[in-house]
Amino acid sequence: MLRYSLKRLLSLVISLAVASLVIFFVIEVAPGDPASFMLGINAQPDTVAALRSELGLDVPKWQRYLDWLGGMLTGDFGTSYTYRTPVSDMVAERVKVSLPLALYALTLSTALAFPAGIYAAARRGRPGDMAVMGATQLGVAIPNFWFAMMLVLVFAINLRWFGAGGFPGWDNGVWAGLHALTLPAISLALPQAAILARVMRSSLIDILGEDFMRTARAKGLSRRQALWRHGVRNALIPVLTIIGLQFSFLLAGAIIIEQVFYLPGLGRLVFQSISSRDLIVVESVVMLLVFAVIVVNFLVDLAYAVVDPRLRART
Amino acid sequence: MKHFARLAAVSALALSAGIGAARAEGGITVAMQLEPPHLDPTSAAAQAIDSVVYSNIFEGLTRFMGDGSVVPGLAESWEISDDGLTYTFSLHEGVTFHDGTAMDAEDVVFSLDRARAEDSVNAQKALFDGIESVEAVDPATVRITLAEPNGNLLFNLAWGDAVIVAPESIETIKTNPVGTGAFRFANWVQGDRIDIEKNPDYWGTPAVLDKATFKFISDPTAAFAAMMAEDIDAFAGFPAPENLPQFEADPRFQVLVGSTEGETILSINNKQPPFDDIKVREAIAHAIDRQAIIDGAMFGYGTPIGTHFAPHNPAYVDLTGTSAYDPEKSKALLAEAGLADGFETTLHLPPPSYARRGGEIIAAQLAEVGIKAEIINVEWAQWLESVFRGKNFGLTIVSHTEPMDIGIYARPDYYFQYDNPDFQALMDTLNRTTDPDKRTGLLQQAQTVIAEDFVNGYLFQLANLGVAKVGLEGLWANAPTAAIDLTAVSWAQ
């Protein structure tokens, strides 16, 4: 197990190093000088030069890369060009919105998907199954930003149960915060739930055909008992993989939803930074998201090995 | 679950109660599209900075009013020497910054010297060109000496880039701006909002509102939803003109349509063949149907212009007739220029909808007369780099939002590369003239010269579109500068 973990860890470090290189240089290569962007079309050349040196943009690229990398290892992500505040503070502030939103959406999607998937698998081919499958088909097909707009139309503009967007901040209480995140979380969760329910269903159907399920029935368990005691637990393995993938997707993929609901989250930060050429913020946030994805994958890999001892033996 | 629902309902009630309370005390939430990068108006070009801080937090020696006029600000009055070289400003007495320190002549010297310094990062440093020295005569008197007369000085000093700041608070100005205005900075939740509150020690007419919140909503659909759900009280620079009729029909809202300083033009690379031929530029001018662009790209909002000047300015001359829509004439001119079969060029379009939507229409109109313009969509940073600085373009569409910027036509290295010594001499004379009537004459002459040289395709003046709840009074309809001036805003009783 230790060897397996170390191997995984090494590949994690290599992935991160490669990612940092790609991210930095791809973003730096894109045209657009941050200083002239900030100073606009009336600025004089010497003003732009003064700002470039103030921002530290007049040193060679590779040196900036090394500074950036070195800084990140010590938790210093540099200073935002536009906001002139430490990137780490900005990111920390935004994570307070994005992380709860991702967790909220994940909770909602599993809460919806598990019962739906199990229900459909248990009624395979019957009207109940067809209804659930039809609904999930729709859930996968509907773009979440469109769904978000519909939610706003119904629950914010017509019914007035929620605000149309914005975030009051956690200082105003947990409930005010959750209340503001509810519509965004639902619009993120629904497509995820649809995918998850389908995976749960097919995985469970596979399991139901296994020998050990027949044995369980033969030992006298009812269909329902066998399903819950042996089926669901075994079906969870592929489902966990999807949940792992979805979590990183939720963290990074909320950009559009954060735009629609004008939430001050990580996605909106990336969006704003790209349009204002705040390169260091873009690089740092993208790096952070890559880090999150890679770490989650690492944890999923480890979880496999824990759940399935055969994996440990093979590597 | 029931428990959660009840709690959610309670918190929703608490939330709406909070909003109600804010209104009763005279608060306002106003939304705008872009968030300011930081809050120092003297070291960036971002208009969103001025939107929040101009007049509300920071003030200059002179200031713009909603109608575009320039009136005294921190300077009570001034005297101009007969040769036009010395301006002596008398400052208001008893003015303090929000941190309690006094505002005096030394602060003015500090602010203007900082703006025009060698290593200054002031985006409009040219405003201070020609200032020889700024001296404090006594705590309430400042003398500005110019190298040569500059009739624009009082106007220039009204810009957000020329506001008065204090050395004591300059280090943290970007996140904690300290000015002399009727409001003081309270709080900034980055990515979400900026709160300001009434300055109880204000030297002038105090603000009516107790506090105000600026919210940032960039997505047009979200802007519409936020307004409809009454999450916000007003939206300055509403990004979705297509929704305005709906607000107009709704008794809860008022729609404010005004003018801006934004001349939207089809910029032409005057040095690049075939545009170096005035016949070709004239052909382009006559190929453009302005009203079709205003209707198609701006849903009817915008005023046609025939030159690079704001129609609300008293010195404006209507020259739209000089470049009236006449495709037949356009074809004839192209034939005269030896381009009877037309030619191919590029049309670079930055992100705003006036450019993207307007560009499609212009490309179609140019195609009618045989000019094939290849549309290239670019981001702002790219536009600045390749079009504006690199001058690597044939045609492009952009709104020039700086007030009174006809002077850019006297800069041969400016991106549209118009080089006319007569025009440059004219601008020189204008800068040295302080007499208002003479200035008007010169400005009108200048407008005519560039219109008749068909330097660019002049499209329309960008409209300032605002939506507000009924009962909110005192908001600017026009935008002579990018300010959302809340100093005179109040709720009707």
UniProtKB/TrEMBL annotation, chain A:
<dbReference type="InterPro" id="IPR045621">
    <property type="entry name" value="BPD_transp_1_N"/>
</dbReference>
<dbReference type="InterPro" id="IPR000515">
    <property type="entry name" value="MetI-like"/>
</dbReference>
<keyword id="KW-0472">Membrane</keyword>
<feature type="transmembrane region" description="Helical">
    <location>
        <begin position="143"/>
        <end position="162"/>
    </location>
</feature>
<keyword id="KW-1003">Cell membrane</keyword>
<dbReference type="GO" id="GO:0005886">
    <property type="term" value="C:plasma membrane"/>
</dbReference>
<feature type="transmembrane region" description="Helical">
    <location>
        <begin position="285"/>
        <end position="307"/>
    </location>
</feature>
<feature type="domain" description="ABC transmembrane type-1">
    <location>
        <begin position="95"/>
        <end position="300"/>
    </location>
</feature>
<keyword id="KW-0812">Transmembrane</keyword>
<feature type="transmembrane region" description="Helical">
    <location>
        <begin position="9"/>
        <end position="27"/>
    </location>
</feature>
<dbReference type="Pfam" id="PF00528">
    <property type="entry name" value="BPD_transp_1"/>
</dbReference>
<feature type="transmembrane region" description="Helical">
    <location>
        <begin position="235"/>
        <end position="257"/>
    </location>
</feature>
<dbReference type="GO" id="GO:0071916">
    <property type="term" value="F:dipeptide transmembrane transporter activity"/>
</dbReference>
<dbReference type="InterPro" id="IPR035906">
    <property type="entry name" value="MetI-like_sf"/>
</dbReference>
<dbReference type="Pfam" id="PF19300">
    <property type="entry name" value="BPD_transp_1_N"/>
</dbReference>
<keyword id="KW-1133">Transmembrane helix</keyword>
<protein>
    <submittedName>
        <fullName>ABC transporter permease</fullName>
    </submittedName>
</protein>
<keyword id="KW-0813">Transport</keyword>
<feature type="transmembrane region" description="Helical">
    <location>
        <begin position="174"/>
        <end position="197"/>
    </location>
</feature>
<comment type="similarity">
    <text>Belongs to the binding-protein-dependent transport system permease family.</text>
</comment>
<feature type="transmembrane region" description="Helical">
    <location>
        <begin position="101"/>
        <end position="122"/>
    </location>
</feature>
TrEMBL record, chain B:
<dbReference type="InterPro" id="IPR030678">
    <property type="entry name" value="Peptide/Ni-bd"/>
</dbReference>
<dbReference type="GO" id="GO:0030288">
    <property type="term" value="C:outer membrane-bounded periplasmic space"/>
</dbReference>
<dbReference type="GO" id="GO:1904680">
    <property type="term" value="F:peptide transmembrane transporter activity"/>
</dbReference>
<protein>
    <submittedName>
        <fullName>ABC transporter substrate-binding protein</fullName>
    </submittedName>
</protein>
<dbReference type="InterPro" id="IPR039424">
    <property type="entry name" value="SBP_5"/>
</dbReference>
<feature type="domain" description="Solute-binding protein family 5">
    <location>
        <begin position="70"/>
        <end position="397"/>
    </location>
</feature>
<feature type="signal peptide">
    <location>
        <begin position="1"/>
        <end position="24"/>
    </location>
</feature>
<comment type="similarity">
    <text>Belongs to the bacterial solute-binding protein 5 family.</text>
</comment>
<dbReference type="GO" id="GO:0015833">
    <property type="term" value="P:peptide transport"/>
</dbReference>
<dbReference type="GO" id="GO:0043190">
    <property type="term" value="C:ATP-binding cassette (ABC) transporter complex"/>
</dbReference>
<keyword id="KW-0732">Signal</keyword>
<dbReference type="InterPro" id="IPR000914">
    <property type="entry name" value="SBP_5_dom"/>
</dbReference>
<dbReference type="Pfam" id="PF00496">
    <property type="entry name" value="SBP_bac_5"/>
</dbReference>
